[in-house]
Amino acid sequence: MSLIENIIRPEVRALSAYHVPASEGFVKLDAMENPYTLPDALRAELGQRLADVAMTRYPVPSYAELKRKICAGLGVPAGYDVVLGNGSDELITMLSVACAKPGATVLAPLPGFVMYGMSAKFAGLQFVGVPLKPNFSLDLPAMLAAVKEHKPAITYLAYPNNPTGNLFDAADMVTIIEAAGDSGIVVVDEAYQPFAQTSFMPRLPEFANMVVMRTVSKLGLAGIRLGYMSAAPALLAEFDKVRPPYNVNVLTQAAAEFVLDHVDVLDEQAALLRAEREKLALALAALPGVEVCPSAANFLLVRLQQGRHSADAVFASLLAHKVLIKNVGKMHPLLENCLRVTVSTPEENAVFLDALNASLAP
């Protein structure tokens, strides 16, 4: 056997690394980023704030002030705290590590965020995916059957879901949370909450086994990599035990604390993107052979009519026009011939629509 075969777990060898395509020179509409920057005056003030950061020192590991601002400004219930992560990806890793008892299982609807399954496998957990219905709603009987059979340590419910963009029925989610009971936690992933304007965060006191996880990435701060999650205090304390020390760097901490003092600016940007989402959806729906799926996120999933358009060909044509979106057609059978596009500024949306029209032309 080779060195790699001797030391690397077979389930890791079987995986592919998470691929992020090069985007320089493209209109980048593949990663659900907020295209708007801070106003010039705030950018200058932030620059000075960052210049004053003591980069020679480790962060204060309690992150007390940053957590206080998150709790106060982002709707965390009174009496509840947050655990911080280097993006929500690290939070998912923490959950996997904390819950990786021998034979434990992670459950999630599919198609969904790929890191749920990847993180489970990294930690040696079993992963069980339950297909959504063809309209991308939860298959509640199938989910409940899977909860009963596998007794998952973690069940993920993205609200709204990525890559489909829809909000699952809240009553169905509550039924799943209640069914999990004391045998497992249910993580409500609210990465796109600024665009959905609905949340399970205020309902944390109702459910001792629920975790609400968010990121500031989609709110407009993808580059600083900051996620946070909240849960019942005793449960959250257990997750904090596996958080690496100093996992949020001092520049991220300073930037987040500053921007949270001006969260109204980010809220205004989210409102602009919600308005653009509706305009873009109408424009796409008017194109022949294009079906637009309802979205409560900052992206749209479109399905191209089989036999009329090929998602692979349209994606390649868009690349030739220097427009980068996400070809999700091979992620899951329910996504066959589907593309996902980030909602951006009116100017970038217009560039995308022009390129798409050219790509759909006979």
Please give a structural write-up:
- It is a single chain.
- The chain has 362 residues and is an alpha/beta fold.
- The chain folds into 2 domains: 3-38 and 264-360, Aspartate Aminotransferase, domain 1 (Alpha-Beta Complex); 55-261, 3-Layer(aba) Sandwich (Aspartate Aminotransferase, domain 2).
- The chain contains 15 helices and 13 strands.
- The strands form 3 sheets. Strands 2-8-7-6-5-3-4 form a 7-stranded mixed beta sheet, sandwiched between helices. A 4-stranded antiparallel beta sheet has the order 9-10-13-12. The protein has a two-stranded parallel ribbon with strand order 1-11.
- The longest helix has 23 residues, at 263-285.
- The protein starts with a helix and ends with a helix.
Summarize the structure.
This protein is an alpha/beta fold. It has helices spanning 3-7, 10-13, 40-51, 64-73, 87-98, 114-122, 140-150, 170-180, 193-196, 217-221, 233-240, 250-260, 263-285, 311-320, 346-360, and strands at residues 27-28, 83-85, 105-110, 126-131, 154-158, 185-189, 210-215, 227-230, 290-292, 299-304, 323-324, 326-327, 338-342. The protein has two domains: 3-38 and 264-360, Aspartate Aminotransferase, domain 1 (Alpha-Beta Complex); 55-261, Aspartate Aminotransferase, domain 2, CATH 3.40.640.
